[in-house]
Amino acid sequence: MVTIFADTSSSIPVNEALALDIEYLPQIIVFGEKTFRDDTEMDSKTFLDYLKASPSLPKTSAPPPALYKPLLEKHLQAGHEVIILTPSAQVSGTFRSAEIAAQEYQDGQIKILDTQNIGASFATIVLQAVQWSKDGMSSDNIILKVKDLISRERNLFVVDTLEYLYKGGRIGGAKMLFGSLLQVKPILALKEGKVEPVESQRTKKKAISRLIQIVTVDCPKNKSSMLSIQHGDAQVEAINLANEFKNLLGIDNIPIYNLPPAFLVHSGPGVLGVSYFVEPT
C-alpha cells in the first residue's frame, strides 16, 4: 500500500482529503505574534478578512518536521510505502521540512517529490496520485506518472492588484510602479515552480477574456485536460469562468477550488485562475 502525504497548499478541502485517506498537513499562517494552522484554525475566508485589515503583510510557514514524524512512524510501522508530495520549493519551505522529517529513516522508505506547483494544479496531481495508489500502483510508478503530469501542467491566473506580489518579493519594484500607474491587470503563470508574467491587460475584464482565449487554444477539449478553476474571494467570477469553459471546451465536470492562504498571501483577494494539463508530446 502506498500512502500519499500532501498539505493544504493544494486547495483540497480538509474534509475531502481526510475522506480520501490523504495524510494532510497544514501550512502555518503568521500574523505578527500570532500563528494559525490553516486546517483547523484559519480558512481562506478568515485569512482574507485578516489580510484586508492587517497593516503589514502576513507570512506563511511550512508544516514543521515534528508534524510529519508521528504520521510517518504510523505508516512505516504498518509496512506502507510513503510518497510526500509538496508545493513548489520555490515558494514554500515544505519540501525542505519533509526532507528533514524523513532523514532518520532508511533510504527508499519515503519518497518526496516537489510538484513545482500550488493551488489547483497541485490538487489535481495529489488526487491522481491517490487514485493510482488505490489502483494498486507501486510508489515508483506513481512517481513516474506524477513527474509526467508535472511536465504537462499549466497554471494561469489573473490578480486584482500587484501589491501583494510586490510586498512578498515576487515582482520587481519597477513593475509595481508601472502596474499602479496604468492599472495593469497581469496574466501570470506558475512555471517550473516560479511566478512568471504572461502578458498584461488594462482591465480585469479584458485580462479574463484573454485568459479564456489562451486556455481555449492550448487546453485539450476533453476530460484528459483535468481542467479546474481556482479563486480567492471571487466565487461568482469562478462559476462564470467554469461555465464558459464548459461551453467552449465541452467539458462537463470542472472543479472550483478556493485558493489557500499560502497562495493568497502573494496574490491578495480577487485572484482568478485556471489549471489544466496538455497532451503528452
Mean pLDDT: 91
- Helical region count? 11
CATH architecture group name of the largest domain: 3-Layer(aba) Sandwich
Biggest sheet, strands in spatial order? 10-9-8-13-11-12
Tally of distinct domains: 2
User: What is the succession of H and E elements?
Assistant: EHEEEHEHEHEHHEHHEEHEHEHE
The CATH class label of the largest domain is Alpha Beta
- Beta strand %: 15-25%
Poorly predicted runs of 5 or more residues: none
Range of helix content: 40-55%
**Computed Rg:** 19 Å
Would you kindly provide a written description of the structure presented here, covering whatever features stand out?
The protein is α/β, with parallel strands linked by helices. It is 42% helix and 23% strand. The protein has helices spanning 14-19, 44-53, 65-77, 94-102, 120-134, 139-152, 163-167, 173-182, 204-218, 235-249, 261-267, and strands at 2-7, 23-25, 28-31, 34-37, 59-61, 81-86, 110-114, 153-158, 185-191, 194-201, 228-231, 256-258, 272-277. The strands form 3 sheets. Strands 10-9-8-13-11-12 form a 6-stranded mixed sheet, sandwiched between helices. It has a 4-stranded parallel sheet with strand order 2-1-6-7, sandwiched between helices. Strands 4-3-5 form a 3-stranded antiparallel sheet, covered by helices on one side. The chain is globular and about 55 Å long. The model has no long low-confidence stretch (mean pLDDT 91).
